[in-house]
Every structure is written in C-alpha cells, then in structure tokens.
Amino acid sequence: MNGVFYLMRFALHLLIVWGICLLVKPLMEQGVRHFAAQVNGHFIRRKKVLRLKAGGIPRYVPFYSHLDNLLYIARRNYEPGTTVLRFMVQSGLLAAAVFLSGLLTLRELPGHLAFHNPFLEGVSFDSGRPLQDGWRLPLFLAVLAGMLPYLRLRYAYAHKKVKGSYHLLDAVKIAAKFTHLPVDSLLGRTADYLDEDNVLVTPLKILSASFANYSSEHELAAETQRFAKAVGTTFAVEFVSDLLYCEKEGGSYLKNSLMMLNRSMEQQRETILAVKANSRDAISLGLYGNLVVLFFSIGTFIYMLKPGVYFRLQFETRAGLAFLMVIVSGLFVSFVIGSVLAKPKLDYH
Q1: How confident is the prediction along the chain (349 residues), in pLDDT tens digits per residue?
Q2: CA distance linking residue 338 with residue 144, whole number of Å
C-alpha cells in the first residue's frame, strides 16, 4: 500500500512540473525560433566559407544532423532548424521533469526499498538506514524518459519512410502532368495536388524551394540527396536524378522518363502486394503468436501455483521483476520487427 501511495506522489509531482512546463512553453517558443535562426545562419556562413576553401560541402554537427534527417520526413510541420531545437528542448524538459519528480518523491521515502520473503514481508521500506545517493535512480529514470521521444521519433521515421516509398508513386504520377513547367514549379504543384496524408508534401515543398533558390550545384545536389535518403529507395534516386538532369539540360525527356518510372513502380507494387498476400498468415503469426504463447503460459502458472502465490513471486521478488522486464522488452522488439517486415518498402528487393 505504501508503494502505491508513493507512486501517486510521484505522479502528482510529475503533473506539477508538467503544468509549469506548459506555462513556460509559450514564452520559450519565440526564443527557440530566434536561437534556431542564429544557428542556421551560423551553419550557412560556415558552409560557404568551407566550400570556398575545400570545394565541398562541410559536415554538420553529427547529432544535430541526425535529428534533422529524422524529423525531415517524420514531422509534417517540419521547419529547418526550428523543429530540431524544439524537439531537443522538449526532450530535455521531459527528462528534467522526471528527474525532479523522482528526486522529490525519493526524499519523502522512509528509507531503502527492500525485497524480503514474498510470503512473509514482501516488498517493504527499510527505515533503519538513511537514504544515500538518492539522485541515481531519478537520473536513471530521467535518461530513460529523455530517450522516449527519440525512440518514438525513430519508430515514426521508419513507419513514414515505408509510407513515403508508396506515396512517391502518387508524386511521380502528378509530376508527369507538369513537365512543361520549371522544376521548382513542378515540385510545388505536385505538393499542392497531393493528399493531405501524404508524407512527402513537406519534403517536396522544401525541395521545390531548393531548386528555386540554390546558389551552387553542390547545394542542390545535397538537398536532392537528402530527399532520396529520406525515402530510401532506388525509385527516389531515379526521381531526383531526372529532376537534376532536367534542371541542367532541359526538360524535353522528363515526361517520358517519369512515365517509365511510374510504370516500373506500378509493376513493383503489384509484385510486392502479391508476395505480401501470400505471406500474410506467417507475418500475423509472428506478430501475435508470442502474445498467445505468453497468455497461455501465464495462465498455466497461475493455475498451478494459485493466483496469490504467482503474483507474489512475479511482482515481489527481484527475479520476477527482472524476468518481467525481459519478457516485455522482448515482446516490444519482436512486435517492432514484425511490423517492419509486414510493410516492405516499394523498392527492388
């Protein structure tokens, strides 16, 4: 009962810190935008200087560039620079909120959490020893909480990357109707005519702005390469290659090239759908078979040991909690892998 009471205190502390963050968020938004503009300006100036010296595109800050590439396709309201800093600030605030809440809660505990015989005392607080190094557990929880937005972003990135490979087919179909326009106008019109749920709307608008405002071929090549990597298929590479060729040599062959690309993507899509239909049962078994096995295994143990004994062994012993964490983690990993395999990208395999 004491454990539930202190969990409620932790939740209330977290709620208070979250409310404070909501109050401060409108004030921080303008500061984040201003700081993002300064950072982007610094990177642009540094890139121009290094290009004059070395003749190539300089390397950005690795972690910043990594997040920027993930958010490029994962966030629909992506803004260069601003979205990355906003994501980093939100992750930092979440970690700080969990750390403060955990620290305040642990300071109110009567002592250490002790595991005894589950059939006699179970889990209790040992009040005989003072609480030392009380910052370690809150720090560990804060690190885990700070990683949650990144893990969620990685999952969204993988999911939308697969969707983007199929949405590229719609973009190619629409782009083939505007080959009489310049490349920047072609991409802008294509983005306007795409459905709202198409994940390539924002990347196409950014690519359109790059074709309209690029200052050198290196800059344009970097932006087109970024778009191709975001989609991650051979068809995306072919699409941006056709656009670059049209920008340099003219668009007399662009329509035929896009029509051939459309035909190839349609054929590959039909092949993937046929293979997916044949292997649907096996994929579904892999996704949900583990849950069925776990359900029957737990039911068997509960029947053999009786519910009271099972729950004490599972939740009031170190080994039981450790095995529970391993099982839950394994189920999560298997579900993610199964979800990825169930939705292959539209590409040559």
Answers
A1: 455 666 677 777 777 777 777 777 676 667 766 776 676 667 666 655 555 443 333 444 567 888 989 999 998 888 877 888 888 888 888 888 888 877 777 766 555 555 556 555 555 555 544 455 567 778 888 888 889 999 899 989 988 999 999 999 999 999 999 998 999 999 999 999 999 899 999 999 999 999 998 888 888 998 999 999 999 999 999 999 999 999 988 777 899 999 999 999 999 999 888 877 776 666 666 667 777 888 888 888 888 888 888 888 887 777 887 888 888 888 777 777 777 667 788 887 6
A2: 24
Strand 123-126 with 112-115, pairing: antiparallel
Give the Cα separation of 78 and 61 in Å (integer): 19
Give all strands (DSSP E) within 168-213, no chain letters: none
Instruction: Tell me the pTM.
Output: 0.75
List the one residue out of 147, 243, 138, 114 whose CA is nearest residue 187. Answer: 243
- Identity of the amino acid at 10: F
Q: Which two tokens stand for residue 236?
A: 């995306």
Tokens 């969204």 belong to residue? 156
Residue 265, exposed/middle/buried by CB under 10 A (0-12, 13-18, 19+)? buried
Contacts of 101 (CB under 8 A, 6+ apart): 10, 13, 14, 16, 17, 138
Q: In sequence order, which residues have a C-beta less than 8 Å from that of residue 157 and are 6 or more positions away?
A: 70, 73, 74
Show the 3-state SS of 85-124: HHHHHHHHHHHHHHHHHHHHHHHCCCCEEEECCCCCCCEE
CB–CB of 153/72 below 8 Å? no
| Phi, psi (deg, nearest 5) at residue 29 | -60, -45
The Cβ-side half-sphere exposure at 333, using a 13 Å CA radius, reads 6
For the chain, the C-alpha Rg in angstroms (whole number) is: 27
Cα–Cα distance for residue pair 89/91, rounded to 1 Å = 5
